[in-house]
Design a protein that fits this description.
By secondary structure, this protein is mainly beta. The protein contains 2 helices and 21 strands.
Length: about 230
């Protein structure tokens, strides 16, 4: 595989779509996973439908009224997340006066189970320091989310693990390396890292950068029911 093909695999270009209701979407795909970043104007409805795959969603700027199944919640930026299992309907409405930016991870991989938490919505389970970064975790049965603040000069050392990892730049910019292929991420840019693919990150800029990292299955925490096994 040449360097250009590796870059497209680990750092795919966005597919852009502008919908009739004014919602603009950037979609990034690798294999069975799609990351969608949607820019939702006031009053617009983002219909999630009831697809075969699972969805994990978070508001990254603004606020959004989200319904999963029969549960509705006003989601604030980075304050919570939702996990919608296959064949459960979801819908989001921007009831605010400002544009909202929402992130949705769509996953439909054969052989995986996508259990949802009771009530579908997640709150943070922990915030702490980790390799010099402030990090916050959200945890579900099959997926773990980690928001990381990467300070100027901060670095996640190059490493490998068996868990799949997907990341999205939420603010600023930083350099991500996957399998010795490096790419500078800016807001919305997404990387995909399969299990045992080496990866690391470095913020070589003067300002702080922020990222959302998704681990499948969870890497840093175990859900309670698995601890009982």
């Amino acid at each position: 595989m040449n360097s250009q093909a590796r870059e497209r695999l680990y750092f795919p270009a966005a597919d852009m779509a502008l919908h009739d209701n004014g919602i603009r979407t950037e979609s990034y795909r690798r294999d069975d996973t799609v990351v969608e970043v949607s820019f939702i104007p006031p009053g617009a409805v983002l219909a999630g439908g009831s697809p075969e795959g699972a969805r994990v969603g978070m508001v990254v700027r603004g606020e959004l009224t989200v319904t999963v199944g029969e549960v509705t919640k006003v989601m604030k930026a980075e304050g919570d997340a939702y996990v919608a299992p296959p064949n459960v309907e979801s819908k989001s409405v921007n009831t605010s006066a400002e544009e909202t930016i929402a992130l949705v991870i769509k996953r439909n991989k054969p052989g995986e189970a996508y259990n949802a938490p009771a009530g579908y919505f997640l709150e943070p389970i922990e915030s702490r320091k980790f390799v010099g970064m402030d990090v916050t975790f959200f945890l579900a049965d099959w997926v773990e989310l980690m928001i990381a603040n990467i300070p100027a000069g901060g670095e996640m050392p190059y490493h490998k693990h068996s868990h799949e990892q997907i990341g999205v730049c939420l603010d600023g910019r930083y350099e991500m390396t996957v399998e010795e292929t490096s790419y500078e991420l800016v807001f919305g840019s997404t990387y995909f890292c399969a299990g045992q693919e080496g990866h690391g990150a470095a913020n070589r800029n003067e300002g702080e950068a922020r990222s959302l990292n998704i681990f499948i299955p969870p890497r840093y925490h175990r859900v309670p029911q698995l601890d009982a096994e």
